[in-house]
Amino acid sequence: MQQIRSTIANDLDKVNQLIVSELYSDVPLVEEIGQYIIAAGGKRMRPILVLLAAKALNYQGELDKQLATAIEFIHTATLLHDDVVDVSALRRGRPTANAEYTNASSVLVGDFIYSRAFQMLVAMNDMSIMNLLASTTNKIAEGEVLQLQKAGDPDTSEEEYLTVIKNKTAILFEASSLGGAMIAGGTETQQQALRTFGSALGTAFQLVDDILDYQGDPAEMGKNIGDDLAEGKPTLPLIFTMRQDNKAQAAIVRQAIQDKSAEHLSQIIDAVSTNGALDYTFQCALKEKQRAIDALALLPDSEAKTQMARLVDLAINRNK
């Protein structure tokens, strides 16, 4: 990640400065909670993607930094809301904002950060970018609701699962790379290539996330193993397990999803590790990686393009 960041170091510094300045509020608690979640760190993958996509098409202006900041704010707002919905207590290795403060304040500050993102988008004075992010945010909300609806449902299909992760996760990656291309004035072919790249990268990222929920290191991940299971989320390793011939394993997983319980987590970890579920999920992630790399082939060669390919490798080969 350091090598990737070095390519856009100055631009990323400007984004970080914008994040701090745009979180200003006359209400101290708003700024305090906003700073709390931003200070927790994170990979900044979406802002990095905006900057790299624009740079890959030779963009020289400042609007990419504005867009990168607005997208990071949208992402941050979804995290604040997600942690309330999921009753999460730990994110990035420390208490969530709702655990440190209250559910109500986390939701309301999330609303503030959402609205600040759109204030920044309005200031960019580009209706096409505004339309992209408005549609994207709407789809994210639909993905969240669909995930909530599917929680506790062991009959969720692989297709339904993929719809959830496309709307909930991949679509903001897609908007990041497409938005960077739009700002840079890319051709229709280049814009579509970067749309595909972002979608594939985001899907691969979430697939690996769902693998790590069963084999990651809590100290490195900053969250507890089995959190998704405890929330009754039917992720791909579980869906794969339930359609195999081992009825005992399928029954344990089905009951865990229905009960939203991690009581039999050790047995389920053993099942997904030995029955091919994690391997299958990783192979799906590798297909998305190839889709992303194929899309990059349509762009002119550049250092930014090279780093975008590295970003895909990072999304696939990570332990947190």
Compute the number of helices.
17
Question: Which fold does the CATH topology refer to?
Answer: Farnesyl Diphosphate Synthase
Indicate the radius of gyration in whole angstroms.
Answer: 19 Å
Multimerization state = single chain
Task: Give, in order, the helices and strands.
Answer: HHHHHEEHHHHHHHHHHHH
The level of helicity is over 70%
CATH 4th-level superfamily: Farnesyl Diphosphate Synthase
Q: Count structural domains.
A: 1
Count the E strands. Answer: 2
Structural class: mainly alpha
* Coarse morphology: globular
Binned strand content: under 5%
Please list the strands of the largest sheet in the order they lie side by side. Answer: 1-2
Termini Cα gap: 13 Å
CATH class division: Mainly Alpha
What value does the average pLDDT take? 92
Major β-sheet profile = 2 strands, antiparallel
CATH architecture: Orthogonal Bundle
Poorly predicted runs: none
Describe this structure in words.
- The protein has 320 residues and is mainly α.
- The protein has one domain: Farnesyl Diphosphate Synthase (Orthogonal Bundle), CATH 1.10.600.
- Helix content is 76%, strand content 1%.
- It has a two-stranded antiparallel ribbon with strand order 1-2.
- Strand 1 (90-91) and strand 2 form a beta hairpin.
- Helix 5 (63-85) runs antiparallel to helix 9.
- The protein is globular and about 60 Å long.
- It starts with a helix and ends with a helix.
- The model has no long low-confidence stretch (mean pLDDT 92).
